[in-house]
User: Fold this.
Amino acid sequence: MIKDKLENAKIYFGISENLKNGFEWLMSQDLENINPQKYCIDGDKIYANVQEYQTKNDAKYEAHRKYIDIQYVVKGSERVGVADRKLCTDTAVDITPYNESSDIEFFDCSGEDEWQRLNAGEFLVLFPNDAHKPSINPENKLNSIVKKVVVKVSVDE
Assistant:
């Protein structure tokens, strides 16, 4: 997991070409005025989902196998729980097993999690080993509206 501000994204360009291209797309958009929808950046290798939603009190942990997430908050703030995927289990009755077409699985995590507050202008890079629970109310406040861009970056170059 990496947390930083978009203005510092160039620091992370060397991790992978796909990650670099995802950050470059983010930095080239008018994010304040971008419409909520899916944007194709480079076929199935890189795409973005722009979302507007109300934060919630709790969520299940999720993880991805084929994509890295760049989760960037445009407006509002939220908390994101992050835990090591190895400490999670997918055996609970109400947990969804891995879905290859949507590249998502949900977990209960028994290990220690780390909470990150994500404010407007900040991003989290979440790798396949980072189970995460996004969209949580910041500091137990009432639900608030968040506009977020999630850039999905293929781990395969």
The first helix runs from residue 17 to 28. The chain has a mean pLDDT of 91. The CA atoms of residues 2 and 50 lie 20 Å apart.
